[in-house]
Design brief:
Blueprint (H helix, E strand, L loop, with lengths): L2 E5 L10 H9 L1 H12 L5 H9 L7 H9 L7 H10 L4 E8 H8 L8 E8 L6 E3 L11 H7 L4 E6 L5 H5 L3 E4 L3 H7 L5 E2 L3 H13 L11
Parallel strand pairs: 1-2, 1-5, 2-3, 5-6, 6-7
Antiparallel strand pairs: 3-4
The chain binds magnesium ion.
The site of magnesium ion (MG) has 7 residues, from loops.
Length: 220
């Protein structure tokens, strides 16, 4: 069976939302105007995030990467990666943030990660330009579409927010933190609550042993 773990980055691997913090820091005026519009769903993520990123001068890109590098990571990631490697289960990161930011944080773990999917940035012009191979109607990075390309028999998703919802709904097993938990409850999608990657590792370990990964999980 082809079993793959798909993991969000912001607020999941990192303890805080680095991407939103970055936008507020590098494009404060526009962020104050557009972020509430995005949260209120009057503006799509695709349109809003593109406007925000493309308002940042390219010369500030290296500073943006520096700001992220020191972000604290949720405990147990290394141990989870060790376990998955031993079990031959690929670990794929899917982020709506910037590829460079994600890679700067995950650099020490890079050889253990099958792939990192995020927004690409072009710094050749005066202002940053964003690109993604997986744009959909409302998202720059359509996470569920990326997952579908892997053709996993069993997909295990780890996430924390509404940007992981479509991914979670299409997954066999979901590890969710708040506020993703609330959206899943509203849709009666079963999930496993988690606090750190030690818990995720132990839970996947138990599920594999008990072969209950094939069974539907109860909702918490
Ligand atoms: Mg997140």
């Amino acid at each position: 069976m082809k079993r793959i773990v798909f993991c969000d980055f912001d607020g999941t691997i990192t303890q805080s939302e680095t991407f939103v913090a970055m936008l507020k820091y590098f494009t404060p005026v526009l962020a104050e105007r557009l972020l509430p519009e995005i949260y209120a769903k009057r503006l799509t993520l695709r349109n809003g995030v593109r406007q925000l990123i493309q308002s940042i001068p390219s010369v500030r890109y290296s500073e943006m990467i520096e700001l992220t590098r020191s972000q604290p990571i949720r405990p147990g990631l290394l141990e989870l990666l060790d376990f998955l490697e031993a079990e031959n289960i690929p670990f794929v990161v899917i982020s709506g943030g910037l590829q460079g930011m994600v890679e700067s944080v995950l650099n020490p773990f890079r050889n253990r990660i099958q792939a990192i999917h995020a927004m690409q940035v072009d710094t050749r012009g005066q202002f940053l330009q964003v690109h993604s191979a997986y744009e959909s109607g409302t998202e720059i990075v359509a996470k569920a579409q990326i997952m579908a390309n892997y053709n996993a028999d069993q997909s295990i998703t780890i996430g924390d927010s509404i940007t992981d919802l479509n991914l979670a709904l299409a997954s066999s097993i979901v590890f969710a933190r708040s506020p993703l938990t609330r959206y899943l409850q509203e849709r009666n999608k079963p999930f496993i609550p988690w606090n750190d990657f030690f818990e995720v590792r132990d839970c996947i370990h138990d599920l594999i042993l008990s072969r209950s990964l094939e069974q539907p999980l109860r909702t918490y």
